[in-house]
């Protein structure tokens, strides 16, 4: 392994992490995955290996445990870390804020501290559109002021961004990029990896696919009285493979010394707002399935609408979202069928 071509992925057995591992390997990088498997499966690492035909270094590690993390830094040569490891359910964070602050912030501070201590320069932080809160103007750009977070989960992303920004300013040997991505959906076209939440899904598309598979009785649409064209929330849904490729473009930027500042931010989305009902209808049409759903009360922490202005990522990272919504929703269903052994 060459350190400049080796990337540590924390939370790499998770949904976005596993897809990013595939795209990095396909781009010629070596990948080391660490994950504590609290919200992910070993099978996804096997899926990465099957897709790429490459053996992947994998360690069961809790990034909140400094001793475990220290062993990883002393074992593997890497110049770059992509930090995914975090709890990510908005609703759960409203009910259990301390759980989210403890896990999401301690794990990230440990990563930054180790990068500084061991002289590993590049940190790519998995941020989120939630940092924009309820934005006054849409679409949001990287210059859009962050509003107060509407959930503890969103607040952990804002605080972690601040930790990274301040660390990059203070420490000469640390530089970072925060990718603020919008709503990742879909699965790898091979159907070998995808989103597999434990228990009741918090994200819309897994709930859709589980309802289509008969695991959930019906889908709940949280509110149809928002100030949007059809009354349901508007979101920027990005295919997870496109999102993974954005991480490759970002790592390329960091490792080829193209960064203009020690800390940079990019929005990663499609730039196209899609309503919840539009997403449901598209899924039904693409996969020839009728979904039972009920309109219920609004969900705490949800904002009415948010979508990205993506020109900075398109131009500076030389990246753009390419997969269509139809392709993405078809891949999501193929993955669900694979997991459930549905013919």
Automatic annotation (TrEMBL):
One GO cellular component term: cytosol
GO process annotations (BP): galactose metabolic process
EC numbers: 5.1.3.2
Domain NAD(P)-binding: 8-330
Protein's pathway: Carbohydrate metabolism; galactose metabolism
Reactions catalysed: UDP-alpha-D-glucose = UDP-alpha-D-galactose
Keyword annotations of the record: Carbohydrate metabolism, Isomerase, NAD
Cofactor: NAD(+)
Alphabetized Pfam families for the sequence: GDP_Man_Dehyd
Top-level taxon of origin: Bacteria
One Gene Ontology term of the molecular function aspect: UDP-glucose 4-epimerase activity
CDD domains: UDP_G4E_1_SDR_e (cd05247)
Subunit structure, as described in the record: Homodimer.
PANTHER family: UDP-GLUCOSE 4-EPIMERASE
Family according to the record: Belongs to the NAD(P)-dependent epimerase/dehydratase family.
Name of this chain's protein: UDP-glucose 4-epimerase
């Amino acid at each position: 392994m060459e350190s400049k071509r080796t990337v540590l992925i924390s939370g790499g057995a998770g949904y976005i992490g596993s897809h990013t591992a595939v795209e990095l390997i396909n781009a010629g990088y070596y990948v080391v995955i660490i994950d504590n498997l609290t919200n992910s499966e070993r099978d996804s690492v096997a899926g990465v290996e099957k897709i790429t035909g490459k053996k992947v270094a994998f360690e069961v590690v809790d990034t909140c445990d400094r001793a475990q993390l220290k062993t990883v830094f002393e074992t593997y040569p890497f110049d770059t870390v992509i930090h995914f490891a975090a709890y990510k359910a908005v609703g759960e964070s409203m009910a259990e804020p301390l759980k989210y602050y403890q896990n999401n912030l301690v794990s990230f501070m440990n990563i930054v501290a180790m990068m500084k201590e061991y002289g590993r320069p590049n940190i790519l932080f998995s941020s989120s559109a939630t940092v924009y809160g309820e934005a006054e103007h849409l679409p949001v750009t990287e210059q859009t002021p962050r509003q107060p977070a509407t959930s503890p989960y969103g607040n952990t992303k804002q605080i972690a961004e601040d930790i990274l920004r301040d660390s990059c300013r203070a420490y000469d040997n640390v530089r970072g990029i925060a990718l603020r991505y919008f709503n990742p959906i879909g699965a790898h076209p091979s159907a070998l990896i995808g989103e597999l939440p434990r228990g009741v899904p918090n994200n819309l598309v897994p709930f859709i696919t589980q309802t289509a598979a008969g695991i959930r009785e019906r889908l709940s649409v949280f509110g149809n009285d928002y100030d949007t064209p059809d009354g349901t929330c508007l979101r920027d849904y990005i295919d997870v493979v496109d999102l993974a490729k954005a991480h490759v473009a970002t790592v390329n930027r960091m490792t080829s010394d193209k960064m203009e500042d020690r800390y940079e931010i990019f929005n990663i989305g499609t730039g196209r707002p899609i309503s919840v009902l539009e997403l449901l209808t598209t899924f039904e049409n693409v996969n020839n399935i009728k979904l039972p759903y009920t309109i219920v009360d609004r969900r705490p922490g949800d904002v009415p609408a948010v979508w990205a202005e993506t020109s900075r990522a398109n131009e500076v990272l030389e990246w753009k979202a390419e997969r269509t919504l139809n392709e993405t929703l078809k891949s999501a269903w193929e993955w669900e069928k694979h997991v459930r052994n549905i013919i």
